[in-house]
């Protein structure tokens, strides 16, 4: 049975832990960490099989786990990613935006080959990455338009310098247009999907992002358009937001659970 260390006990981390506890993921959750001690304690209370709460994030991979699952923040990836691989553990990353920093990407990618370990990036809150990966050498343009309720965009770095007041938006409004690289820096908890799209396709400078605040939506919608020599692909994913964290879609949680289930099972593997 695989042993899992969990970094981040919020919306995604909690559902992953419950999926392990219920046997849906055939593994044991042995260690957890969250910057918020309360978040870690509340999670452990919900579990039948209690993991140990470690004192800092680096300690997760010093224990004999097979994989560390990051469901915390881009900073957490930058802080512990390398040490997880150096300790010869696999790593699953949800805060994929961190990898659009080329120096972080190169360090982690080199460490994977050096230590013979793998980083897993679940498809998160979107679908279609199998197709994008297959046609990446023939891709000419990729765009993603993400529409969320203003409450799901609150707290983003973007608003520290923008004049836009989310509380005053009363109809669907484009609040950001730019590259994926800019988007993940300005909206670190909202647009990791643009990082997944960039890494699967033509990179973060050529992948374009539009973010729309719509007070009349109750979904997190991602509309992707890709075109090139191969033809054209469009995907629209209308996600139900998580009840505890409206920034995060239910699909992101389920894709994390499915990626881990696959990692922990000897099974037929479907898809590219
Ligand atoms: N790849 C994808 O498609 C998606 C990725 N995400 C990303 O996944 C991550 C987790 O998402 P949620 O669980 O919804 O967030 P959340 O905000 O509900 O939970 C995050 C937890 O991590 C903790 N945390 C934050 N930084 C930390 C650090 N440096 N060290 C230790 N603990 C830390 C927080 O205290 C919090 O309890 C976020 O970065 C989010 O942006 C979310 C949705 C989709
Ligand atoms: O869950 C979503 O809809 C997308 C999201 O927050 C992200 O990509 O960071």
UniProtKB/TrEMBL annotation:
Molecular functions (GO terms): aspartate dehydrogenase [NAD(P)+] activity; NAD binding; NADP binding; oxidoreductase activity, acting on the CH-NH2 group of donors, NAD or NADP as acceptor
- Extra facts: The iminoaspartate product is unstable in aqueous solution and can decompose to oxaloacetate and ammonia.
The pathway entry for this protein reads as: Cofactor biosynthesis; NAD(+) biosynthesis; iminoaspartate from L-aspartate (dehydrogenase route): step 1/1
Q: One biological process GO term for this chain?
A: NAD+ biosynthetic process
- Key word Oxidoreductase present: yes
Keyword Oxidoreductase among record annotations: yes
Regarding protein family, the annotation reads: Belongs to the L-aspartate dehydrogenase family.
**Binding residue positions for NAD(+):** 125, 192
Q: Active site at which residues? A: 222
What role does it play? Specifically catalyzes the NAD or NADP-dependent dehydrogenation of L-aspartate to iminoaspartate.
Name the domain of life.
Archaea
State the UniProt keywords alphabetically. NAD, NADP, Oxidoreductase, Pyridine nucleotide biosynthesis
Under what name is this protein listed?
L-aspartate dehydrogenase
Please report the stretch or stretches of sequence annotated as the Aspartate dehydrogenase domain: 170-257
Which reactions fall under this protein's catalytic activity? L-aspartate + NAD(+) + H2O = oxaloacetate + NH4(+) + NADH + H(+); L-aspartate + NADP(+) + H2O = oxaloacetate + NH4(+) + NADPH + H(+)
């Amino acid at each position: 049975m695989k042993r899992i260390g969990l970094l981040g006990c919020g919306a995604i981390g909690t559902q992953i832990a419950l999926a392990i506890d219920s046997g849906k993921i055939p593994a044991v959750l042995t260690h957890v960490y969250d910057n918020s001690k309360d978040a870690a304690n509340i999670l452990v209370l919900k579990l039948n099989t209690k993991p140990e709460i470690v004192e800092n994030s680096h300690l997760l991979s010093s224990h004999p786990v097979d994989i560390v699952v990051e469901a915390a923040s881009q900073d957490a990836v930058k802080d512990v990613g390398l040490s997880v691989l150096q300790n010869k553990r696999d790593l699953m990353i949800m805060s994929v935006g961190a990898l659009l920093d080329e120096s972080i990407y190169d360090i982690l990618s080199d460490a994977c080959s050096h230590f013979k370990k793998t980083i897993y990036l679940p498809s998160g809150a979107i679908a279609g990455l199998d197709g994008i990966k297959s046609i990446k050498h023939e891709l000419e343009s990729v765009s993603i338009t993400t529409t969320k309720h203003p409450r799901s965009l609150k707290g983003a770095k973007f608003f520290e310098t923008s004049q836009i007041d989310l509380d005053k938006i009363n109809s669907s409004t484009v609040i950001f247009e730019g590259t994926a690289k800019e988007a993940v820096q300005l909206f670190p908890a909202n647009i990791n999907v643009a990082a997944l799209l960039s890494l699967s396709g033509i990179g973060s400078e050529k992948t374009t992002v539009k973010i729309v605040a719509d007070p009349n939506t109750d979904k997190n919608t991602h509309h992707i358009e890709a075109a090139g020599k191969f033809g054209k692909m469009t995907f629209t994913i209308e996600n139900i937001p998580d009840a505890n964290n409206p920034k995060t879609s239910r699909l992101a949680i389920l894709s994390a659970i499915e990626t881990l289930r696959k990692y922990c099972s000897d099974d037929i593997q479907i898809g590219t």
